[in-house]
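During the reporting period the student researcher (J.K.) took over the structure-prediction task from the postdoctoral fellow and processed the backlog of single-chain submissions. One of the processed entries is reproduced below for the supervisory committee.
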Amino acid sequence: MSDDRQFAPATQRNREPILEVLQRILPSTGTILEIASGTGEHSVFFAPQLPGRKWLPTDINYLSLVSISAWLKHSPSDNIYPPILLDVCANIWSIEQEKQYLDEITAIVSINMIHIAPWAACLGLMAGAGRILPENGILYLYGPFKQNGQHTAPSNAAFDEWLKSQNPEWGVRDLEEVIAVAKMQNLHWCETVSMPANNLSVIFQKI
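J.K. obtained the following structure tokens:
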């Protein structure tokens, strides 16, 4: 029997600290839209521990969508929607075109995405969050960031070099620049939380 599940080692390491933040900052009701769900491991771990909410995984990569579906079969939960294809760089997201779930979405979560993607993906994420989130809706980002233009640890500097060797458009982003872009979309920076392995949780609220 084939198993299409993919595994990301970082998920096992970061899921508990991320969940602790999500349980504190996410709205108590509504649908949580996850951008770039990857393997799907975060989806099946978070959703059962966020009662009262639905979890909507998305990705642009077909193999990731297959993996997410496989994880949902392996670890079913009644508050996870089937994954959908979503290109964060599109001017209009697929859920907007098809008018799916829009009235339900109260938060957007994006974990380890904006540094493993062109800068246009961060711009697209902020623009989409600005369009879709209701007033007081939450945008949650997780990953490594530079602060004041400087890496926060030698390991992050090395990771940044490796990312750029894979694709010159990738790289660890400057937190202040991300906050400035968010502000242009009426997303107010609320809080930055230090996380294990020199990562950050960054929380915005739609105003």
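The committee noted the following: The CA atoms of residues 91 and 177 lie 21 Å apart.
J.K. will present the remaining backlog at the next meeting.
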